[in-house]
Amino acid sequence: MTPRTVTATRYVTPLREGGSMPAVVEADDDGLYVLKFRGAGQGAKALVAEWVAGEIARALGLPVPEIVFVDLDPGLARTEPDPEIQHLIRASAGLNLALDYLPGAAAFDPVAEQPDAVLASQIVWFDAYVSNVDRTARNTNLLVWHRRLQLIDHGAALYFHHGWDGSAANAGNPFPLIKDHVLLPWADRIDEADAALAAKLTPETIADIVAQLPDTWLQDADAFAAPDAQRAAYADYLVQRLAQRERFVEEAVRARA
């Protein structure tokens, strides 16, 4: 796969409900996108998690808005009166990431909505696989668009990579935080989801997704190796986690019970 790259042409509005203050921007293809800034507090690793987790979800057939790479000119800061936004734009010059903006989408409400049990089980399995800590009732990171759930905001996934040395030694660890997953009450088919989704996610698919990570996102202060070595380590970890998935599947089933 080759991600589309667009150029941001206009900063439209901030989305201040996000911890890293993403924004709606217009791009040179006349589309609107929700931009995640490389210069935000969570840094480039949040963009790595957004891309890898989001594209794994897509490979599994889960609903995710299109993810694009966005070239950001620091000159856009000149038209913004807010100094915080000016700083964020300048700190994020170069390649960033964005999701397709879904006009009219509403936040998922676990009180009002009744999600499909199969889809709920698949999302729970996926979030346990990518160690996504951020799909709780407090912050669902789910939208309802045209009566269909959409998965967004995966920057908090892959939390193993913060301070990581590239080892896959912990790839088989369970994911106890799955007990807080907003969709767990409806996820009564996790074993079925495991059988269906694991068959879709091949080592080649994982390697293809990871191969698209830009070098500039793999050069943080805690980077343990050159970009190619980091990409190889991500792929190895994710392949190993898939092969050792019994523990996180059992944890999810137990949490629901």
Key features of this structure:
single chain; 257 residues; alpha+beta; 2 domains; three-stranded antiparallel sheet; 7 helices; globular; HipA_2; transferase
Walkthrough of the structure:
The chain has 257 residues and is an alpha+beta fold. It folds into two domains: 5-100; 106-256, no CATH class. The chain contains seven helices and eight strands; from the N terminus they run βββαβαββαββαααα. The strands form two sheets. It has a five-stranded mixed beta barrel with strand order 1-2-3-5-4. A three-stranded antiparallel beta sheet has the order 6-7-8, with no helix packed on it. Strand 7 and strand 8 (148-151) form a beta hairpin. Helix 1 packs antiparallel against helix 5 and helix 5 packs antiparallel against helix 6. It starts with a strand and ends with a helix. The model has no long low-confidence stretch (mean pLDDT 95). Residues 14-242 form the HipA-like kinase domain. One of its GO terms (molecular function) is transaminase activity. InterPro entries: HipA_2. Keywords: Aminotransferase, Transferase.
